[in-house]
Amino acid sequence: MQQNKTILIIDDELQIRSLLDITLTANGFKIIMAETGKQGLIEAATNNPDLIILDLGLPDIEGNEVLQKLREWYFKPILILSVRTSEYDIIDALDSGANDYLTKPFRSGELLARIRAAIRNSEKTESEPIININDISIDINNHLVKKNNTIIKLTSTEFSLLSLLARNRGRVLTHKYLLKETWGLNYQEQTQYLRVFIAQLRKKIEIDPTKPQLIITESGIGYRFCE
């Protein structure tokens, strides 16, 4: 049970709000509702929820605009729940700061799993000095990576990319975001860079690079680092 965790739902569909209220309340969450983007922004500022579920098709303000306004000050997880299924909409939302994206209709079990993962990961501060995932240990401060206590030699770029993925584990990071953060603004379209370096990292940290379990490809969107 997720005691004392508060979720803000910003969605104009009464049926969806009711379903989410029943599902999430039954699993121990406290729920706050908003029917419009403006109301959602007010509720977020007033209550500082642990997670926000945001619809993109709101009646007053476009959902992506609400997302961008929230990201000016709100740093906890935002999960998009929308009928929009196009790759463009998904990438746009993730680039704008969403942690995850689910399409309607959704499966309650999957939604709950993603909510739990997002909240769990948000509670692990980005400044944590050592990240341990399975048999991989990533020492952020000393730029040191070990697998089964054996040091793995990484280039500075490989380490930057791996640490970025690991600090955001569980979250889909788009190609554009990874390129910008690792190489800079002028490289946001150079996806071949990313493919090469991801392949190199997989060879060094995955048990079987052809069947990756840590660095997962989100087809057409980016990559997700899994625990």
Write up what this structure looks like:
- It is a single chain.
- By secondary structure, the protein is α/β, with parallel strands linked by helices.
- Strands 2-1-3-4-5 form a five-stranded parallel β-sheet, sandwiched between helices. Strands 6-7-8-9 form a four-stranded antiparallel β-sheet, with helices on one face.
- The mean pLDDT is 89.
- The radius of gyration is 18 Å and the shape is globular.
- The relative contact order is 0.10.
- The chain contains eight helices and twelve strands.
- It folds into two domains: 6-122, Response regulator (Rossmann fold, 3-Layer(aba) Sandwich), CATH 3.40.50; 130-225, Orthogonal Bundle (Arc Repressor Mutant, subunit A), CATH 1.10.10.
- Helix 4 (87-95) links the parallel strand 4 (78-82) and strand 5.
Please write out the topology.
Layout lengths: L5 E5 L3 H13 L3 E5 L2 H11 L3 E4 L8 H8 L7 E5 L4 H9 L4 E4 L4 H15 L7 E4 L2 E4 L4 E4 L2 E3 L3 H12 L4 E3 H9 L7 H15 L9 E4 L3 E4 L2
Parallel strand pairs: 1-2, 1-3, 3-4, 4-5
Antiparallel strand pairs: 6-7, 7-8, 8-9, 10-12, 11-12
Helix pairs in contact: 2-3, 6-7, 6-8
